[in-house]
Amino acid sequence: xxxxxxxxxxxxxxxxxxxxxxxxxxxxxxxxxxxxxxxxxxxxxxxxxxxxxxxxxxxxxxxxxxxxxxxxxxxxxxxxxxxxxxxxxxxxxxxxxxxxxxxxxxxxxxxxxxxxxxxxxxxxxxxxxxxxxxxxxxxxx
Length: 141
Known about the structure:
Distance between the termini: 22 Å
Largest sheet: 4 strands, antiparallel
Order of helices and strands: EEEEHEEHE
CATH class of one domain: Alpha Beta
Number of helices: 2
Helix content: 10-25%
Mean pLDDT: 93
CATH architecture of one domain: Roll
Number of strands: 7
Radius of gyration: 17 Å
């Protein structure tokens, strides 16, 4: 199934650096959470990623961003189930949206931390969600 879509918007929902927690030379870890929802300006899907970057279990950076993807009408009808009141995102498509959203988060992190001591600690590895999203994503309306 080929779903036609385009970027509509990028939203920085939350961004915070807790500078006194960050320590240079200490290994940083990342916890990433992803979520899907129907955007207020449907037919559109909102894909959000929240990143918590921490050292020794203390968070020093939080970045939560959302990408809004407009879905063409002819594609919307293939993923919208009016009877069940659900949207069904095929796993490959959901993985594409997650990957694009993570790539966007990577750019936002770079732009907001460039020149700061935390910059090298927040460079995200390349991530493909095609193996992380293991099944179709169901969004109840």
